Protein 1
Amino acid sequence: MDIKVGDKLKMKKKHPCGADTMDVLRAGVDFRLRCTGCGHDFFVARSKIEKNIKSVIREDSTHV
């Protein structure tokens, strides 16, 4: 799965605050995510997060 820094992830399960979207701050063997609801930062292993992703929201910055 191709996930890059700056993408938003819509998750299958909600964060305890009620939000279901996360900002990708770091991508590699593990991900650093920030909850869009409460702003909580956390690290999660790639193998664990990839099976819980519902969709990837990518904002292309192709402005000329």
Note: The mean pLDDT is 90.
Protein 2
Amino acid sequence: MGTTRKTITVTEQQDSWIKAQITAGEFTNDSEYIRDLIRRDQAGQADIEAIRALLIEGEESGEPQPFNGEQFKQEMIAKHG
């Protein structure tokens, strides 16, 4: 995978935070930390999209059906002991 060089500007407080993460041994350099943040954001966005798709699926599945919690518990106990 190729790489692209980026230049970013951060506040002094943000720079101190990044340096603290590196000092703590979490990351070896600024770039590694920023790449980790991007990966986490990508994963979070993928999770949100999956939840949205499931919500849409639920909305399109028809009218809500009544739910009896006690009956459900009894069925699960009978099924799974």
Note: The CA atoms of residues 22 and 72 lie 50 Å apart.
Protein 3
Amino acid sequence: MAKTTIESLVDGGRASAGPPLGPALGPLGINIGKIIEEINKKTKDFEGMKVPVKIIVDEKKNFEIVVGTPPTSSLILKELNLEKGSQKPGSEIVGDMSIEKVLKIAKMKREGMLSEDIKSNVKEVLGTCLSIGVNVDGKNPKQVIEEIDEGKYEEIIG
């Protein structure tokens, strides 16, 4: 059962039969339009971001599409409608987001994260907020992490 796997970065909701996908899929003799349509359906929530996708094709031309999630920093910037993070994190703050949005991103990224529990996932997202100059609920993300450890956000995070 030989399978061919093609990995690529596509624009969320806007993959096309042009490069990089078309030339990679063409030699496999499969319906490229059908694959592109499914990729776009699965990635539409990530519009405006680069999304990692994996297309697995077997010898019977059956295919499976596995969609990764964009980097945590991209998800944070999209939530805040920002182009880029701070050039001087720590001294320059480019945005502020709610703990609820941090939780939303942690849930989106959950499968690809190192830790198993949601509290740790939230702390990972807070670490990214810190590194790109984004405060949470008007506070430095380090302070929010301390407050999570003290049990302050139990009702939100669980």
Note: The two ends are 44 Å apart (CA to CA).
Protein 4
Amino acid sequence: MNKNELLEHALADLGNMPAPSVSDGFMDGVWMRAGQLEERSSERTRLALFAAMAFVGLGAGIGATAAPASAEAASFRLVDGADLSPAALLHVEP
């Protein structure tokens, strides 16, 4: 027998085999597994976001505490000596 005859014989045997049957709960199992995979993916995403926020928060906290602090009097160039009463702003004489 040559290779073509062996192939034809194997294909004929496959063609005569009964089709496999799928159980009733097969698709339910598929959707359940898909839900489990989605749940795991969302958990990983939440964990990664939490880790990133913790890293940024700790970095900001460490950076803020290492900065020197000094008290200075606040000076506002726009309002120093200006009368900001409502009468002065409306140009009304009291």
Note: The chain has a mean pLDDT of 83.
